[in-house]
Design a protein that fits this description.
Largest sheet: 8 strands, mixed
Order of helices and strands: EHEHHHEEHEHEHEHEHH
CATH topology: Rossmann fold
Protein name: CO dehydrogenase maturation factor
Shape: globular
Strand content: 15-25%
GO molecular function, one term: ATP hydrolysis activity
Number of domains: 1
Helix content: 40-55%
Distance between the termini: 11 Å
Organism: Desulfacinum hydrothermale DSM 13146
Number of strands: 8
InterPro entries: AAA_dom, CooC, P-loop_NTPase, ParA/MinD_ATPase
CATH superfamily: P-loop containing nucleotide triphosphate hydrolases
Pfam families: AAA_31 (PF13614)
């Protein structure tokens, strides 16, 4: 497996939109194949990318508890369901984790899924993981190796502090993070200065994306935001960020 890129941050900050732009940038710059993993239980990365999702891994997990066909082992069943959950796009594949666990024990199903996912990821040069809002996936150590961590915030203090808390949690976990940046999204006018906590944690790794009315228009009309025109302000600025940080992450990987 090649480079692993993970995104985290408070809900509503544009994290999934940025994930879509990362995937688009990777493909357009010849960095493929890409595996996109939608790890948010409120799955909508597929809408950003403009592809349908009919099955999720949580569907497979639920079915393993009661619907494994007679004569089929659970690992073969789960491998079949994973293949059915994989959505093929242009230069990328997408797999959605789906809703959280229901009542009962999911240890066996989760262990199987984890093993199958690890095997699947080895087939791709780039892995992009759109995490759920908050810190759940990081605290469960579902990503033990991250080459580039994009923490996304809006210009609010709550959003910035949420990004700081995730950064502090990641620092305390036994996981490797090669390169970490903060992307402050939906900025009308950059502030005179960032809070001290933010400066201490991210230093010169703080980047700004403008509030782009074209992005809001695409979202309102239900158009995939990954298909924004190349001259859209948010696309230009996002690509400028990726031009700088991706080669750094690749060199360190």
């Amino acid at each position: 497996m090649g480079l692993t890129i993970a995104l985290g941050g408070k809900g509503g900050t544009g994290k999934t939109t940025l994930a879509g732009l990362v995937i688009r940038y990777l493909i357009e710059s010849g960095r493929k194949p890409v595996l996109a993993v939608d790890a948010d239980s409120n799955s909508n990365l597929n809408e950003v990318l403009g592809v349908p999702v009919e099955e999720t891994l949580s569907d497979a997990r639920e079915m393993m508890k009661k619907d494994v066909p007679v004569g089929m082992t659970k690992d073969i069943f789960m491998e079949m369901k994973m293949e059915q959950s994989l959505v093929e796009g242009d230069g990328f594949d997408l797999i959605a984790m789906g809703r959280p666990e229901g009542p009962g024990c999911y240890c066996a199903a989760n262990n199987l899924l984890s093993s199958l996912l690890d095997r699947l990821m080895k087939n791709y040069d780039y892995l992009v993981i759109d995490n759920e809002a908050g810190m759940e996936h990081f605290s469960r150590l579902t990503q033990k190796d991250v080459d580039l961590l994009l923490l996304v915030s809006d210009p609010s203090r709550r959003g910035l502090m949420a990004a700081c808390r995730i950064a502090q949690l990641v620092d305390s976990l036994p996981m490797r993070v090669g390169h970490r940046i903060l992307v402050v999204n939906q900025v009308q006018e950059p502030p005179q200065g960032w809070p001290q906590d933010v400066r201490d944690l991210f230093g010169d790794g703080i980047y700004v994306l403008p509030a782009d009315p074209m992005l809001a228009q695409f979202d309102m009309e239900g158009k995939p935001t990954s298909q924004l025109p190349a001259d859209a302000a948010v696309v230009r600025e996002a690509y400028a960020i990726f031009d700088k940080v991706l080669p750094q992450a690749e060199a360190a990987a």
